Input
Amino acid sequence: MRAVLRFSSVIFALAALVNIGALPAFAEPIAPPSDADLLAARAAFDRGDRARLETLAPKLAGHVLEPYVDYWRLKLRLETAGDDEVRSHLARWPGTPVADRLRADWLKSLGKRGLWNVFALDWVSAVGDDVELACYGIQYRRQKEGDAVIGAAKPFWFTGQATPDACEPLFAALIAKGELTPADRRARFRLATEAGNVRLAQAIAVELPPDDRITAREFAHVDNAPAFVLAKGEFRWKQQGGRELALYALERAARTDAAGVRAAWEKQRERLPQADRLYGNAKIAYHAARQLQPQANTWFAEAAAAALTEAQHAWRVRAALRAG
Output
């Protein structure tokens, strides 16, 4: 609902500026295309209702946001649109944000279908922050240059969020070549747990080498009662997967009650290598700071040698300021 209200506010502001600026001071007001029709067109696009959108489009000719109406119409049938038709739309609105969006969507459609000869006509190396388009660009280069280029996709691996399907073949190739190591995969597992993305964490964990793996059953056991499981301490401490599961239990428990899980963490952390202890210390201190626990600043001191994330560093500063 908020998105609709913001969109309508933009419509009214832009329409008013355009119409007022276009009229002589003595002219009678000219009724603009209906903003209500534009909102209805946006709703039809969101629903995928092509028939309704085509009915509304002629009424919106001349509207300040008419380029978006054209974009919505083409977007709904982009998979079957011809190259000439797309280029015609791009030429109609050159240099506009909507043209840039259409070009990106078109390239993604071509990449998804493997139409690399057409893709090559519009693709450029600089694609900004669009990871999906960047991965399609690397796939295109791979067709010509081979696996030497797939390393360009490696930075996209290190995220706690799901990555576009366009990147998955590149990640698979990097894993097969040993360029995404088990350590890299564990790093992403940790990023996923820190982001609260349990589904991604589980998907990564079950594909790790045998000693690193965490089974779906182990995840479910921790998720059912993370603080209790951590306190009990029945993990595979001699294997990396068991130690990661203990840290996962700490993450899950500390998210809601860092102070409450502190005693269990103090008991179990001695069973971990120093690097993992520091990682866990930073984790519990971070959640304590977010929960405004007075002990947070002291706990951060125990993680002084840890490599803090940007968020952890910010909360460490806040905890220090609160502590005076």
Q: What stands out?
A: The chain has 18 helices and no strands. Residues 240-268 form the longest helix (29 residues). The CA atoms of residues 117 and 140 lie 9 Å apart. The domain at 181-324 is CATH 1.25.20.10 (70-kda Soluble Lytic Transglycosylase; domain 1).
